[in-house]
Amino acid sequence: MTDGAGEPVLELEGVGRRFGRRWVVEEVSFTVGRGEVCALLGPNGAGKTTTLRMILGLLAPHRGEIRIHGIPVRTRRAQALAEVGAIVEEARFYPYLTGMENVRQALRMRGLPADPDTVRARMAQAGLDGAAAERRVSGYSLGMRQRLALALALVQDPSILILDEPMNGLDPAGMRDFREHLRRLAAGGMTVLLSSHLLAEVEQVAHRLVFLERGRVTAVEAAGGGTQQLRLRVEPAAAAAAWLEARGRPVTADGDALRVAWEAEAVPDLVRELIGQGWAVYEVTPVRASLESRYLARTGGRREEDGDVVGALRQ
């Protein structure tokens, strides 16, 4: 199942990974376009972290292909990952150094220019500048540490950013700031792939959603998409409900109206058919399903397990 927008930056085709005899990721396929924020959603154990680690070349897929800017990660890892920044595990810092000194050291280790202007630019991208940049990391709050982790992920000026649960533990102000940073980066053309359980935050920042369940992609859709529900006020309501049910469209009551699932592009035809029956149509209102309801529908409403296989093997 593939989908994407704009120039393709990241492509997964039939990717699978097993541990022992168990396939924890099976036939995962999707595409992420330039300047797009794509969210990988699913319960623990669905294969999100395993998928991200395969994209980063930390795990080798047993089948399928992963390409970044058309370059296969499996056979040309260094070249494919040259423009990739990531926060996948807990970031490591030098606590006795300042934020600026940590970023400067990261630039030096990668053989990149570490002049003051470059250091400040990377920190500003992550929203960590001013007096905070000159403070020792040992005195940073969790939100400041997350911003520093983002600055470190941006040191090589990547075109794609991979983030695994980047907003965990942040307070509401920290989440808002991090969300705004991601929006600015995407607006500047950077591609962002993130996994998160914070659906309210995902709903505000993501352009595309990839739902995973038991290692398989169950849906790829626009963040504002999903199954459209219509609120219909039609008279006679009972006759209209029976007519819709006869066409295989389950109907539920919504006050003095009917609620039914219908494809957006087919709504004009539906209205014409209702009027053609001689019925009075007073209201046709699309009602977008919440991300929470879409998540539960796409993942079968399964409770989270104790973690995916990669997490278990680390212990």
TrEMBL record:
Domain ABC transporter as annotated: residue spans: 10-239
One of the record's GO molecular function terms: ATP hydrolysis activity
SUPFAM superfamilies, A to Z: P-loop containing nucleoside triphosphate hydrolases
Keyword annotations from UniProtKB, A to Z: ATP-binding, Nucleotide-binding, Transport
Transmembrane segments: none
Gene3D superfamilies hit by this protein: P-loop containing nucleotide triphosphate hydrolases (3.40.50.300)
A Pfam match: ABC_tran
Ranges in a coiled coil: none
Keyword Manganese on entry: no
InterPro entries with a match to the protein in the record: AAA+_ATPase, ABC_transporter-like_ATP-bd, ABC_transporter-like_CS, P-loop_NTPase
Taxonomy, superkingdom: Bacteria
Similarity section: Belongs to the ABC transporter superfamily.
PANTHER family listed in its UniProt record: ABC TRANSPORTER, ATP-BINDING PROTEIN
Protein name listed in UniProt: ABC transporter ATP-binding protein
Organism this protein belongs to: Candidatus Hydrogenisulfobacillus filiaventi
